[in-house]
């Protein structure tokens, strides 16, 4: 089962990277023309999602079958335990009766009374023991079933989020992109990357205050995420808050040093290049 899940996730990941590479190549070759292959790509994505759903349904059926077999095996063990217990009880009764006769007990009434007491005590002990085992087994089965259900829900959410990210990668309209990022956040409100990409889309639309607010939300969720400070620096620079933008850039580079290589390529920082403090942040060559 774990191998099947790994193969499915690996196959979907390879499909995603292949589509991303294909989309990037088409954009580099024909940046000013709309691709005629987009409907085919979307159809391919839908077919892939259908295949993933079918694999998930097959996996769920396998899980349910395995749980049913586990419950059946547990019932068989309980029946065997009960049968063995009864056989042992009869052996104990026979042995006890023989011992009592050999010890010279005079009255069969005394023998029956003693045997009943011994048998009742033994039955109570065995019953209590097997009840405890049965409760423990039922608890393990319920826990395992819940784990399987939770895992299936996580897989379903991951597949859905992955499909939305693929659609967002193909989308060129910023308003539609924001709607797709909202769908991701509705499934997983703690998806910090969706917040950052939504902030970037808001920035591209010229709504710098909204981009600033979204970047702050991302920082509140993860104060060590350098890209969140970078996005807030872009919003601050666009709003004319130069010093705040530089401070955010410093924090972003401290959290993610590779961002320093993007200083010259970031359009939002064009007005900051004249500042010595900004130039000092660039990597020394």
Automatic annotation (TrEMBL):
It comes from the Bacteria. The keyword Coiled coil applies. This is Tetratricopeptide domain protein. The chain crosses the membrane at residues 86-105. SUPFAM superfamilies: TPR-like. Residues 1-23 form the signal peptide. Keywords: Coiled coil, Membrane, Signal, Transmembrane, Transmembrane helix. Residues 127-154 form a coiled coil. The keyword Cell membrane does not apply. InterPro entries: TPR-like_helical_dom_sf, TPR_rpt.
């Amino acid at each position: 089962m774990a191998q099947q899940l790994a193969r499915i996730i690996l196959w979907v990941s390879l499909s995603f990277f292949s589509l991303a590479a294909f989309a990037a190549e088409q954009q580099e070759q024909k940046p000013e023309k709309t691709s005629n292959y987009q409907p085919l790509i979307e159809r391919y994505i839908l077919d892939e999602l259908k295949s993933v759903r079918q694999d998930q349904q097959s996996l769920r059926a396998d899980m349910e079958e395995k749980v049913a077999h586990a419950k059946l095996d547990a019932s068989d063990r309980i029946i065997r335990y009960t049968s063995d217990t009864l056989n042992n009880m009869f052996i104990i009764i026979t042995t006890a009766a023989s011992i009592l006769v050999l010890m010279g007990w005079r009255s069969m009434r005394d023998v029956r009374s003693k045997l009943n007491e011994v048998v009742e005590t033994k039955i109570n002990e065995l019953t209590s023991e097997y009840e405890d085992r049965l409760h423990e087994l039922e608890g393990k089965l319920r826990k395992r079933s819940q784990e399987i259900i939770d895992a299936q829900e996580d897989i379903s959410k991951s597949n859905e989020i992955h499909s939305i990210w693929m659609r967002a990668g193909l989308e060129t309209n910023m308003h539609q992109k924001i709607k797709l990022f909202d769908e991701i956040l509705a499934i997983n409100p703690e998806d910090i990357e969706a917040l950052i990409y939504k902030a970037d889309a808001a920035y591209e639309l010229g709504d710098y205050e909204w981009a600033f607010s979204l970047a702050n939300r991302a920082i509140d969720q993860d104060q060590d995420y350098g890209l969140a400070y970078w996005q807030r620096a872009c919003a601050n620079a666009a709003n004319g808050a130069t010093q705040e933008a530089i401070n955010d850039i410093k924090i972003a580079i401290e959290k993610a040093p590779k961002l320093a290589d993007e200083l010259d390529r970031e359009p939002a920082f064009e007005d900051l290049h004249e500042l010595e403090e900004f130039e000092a942040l660039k990597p020394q060559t």
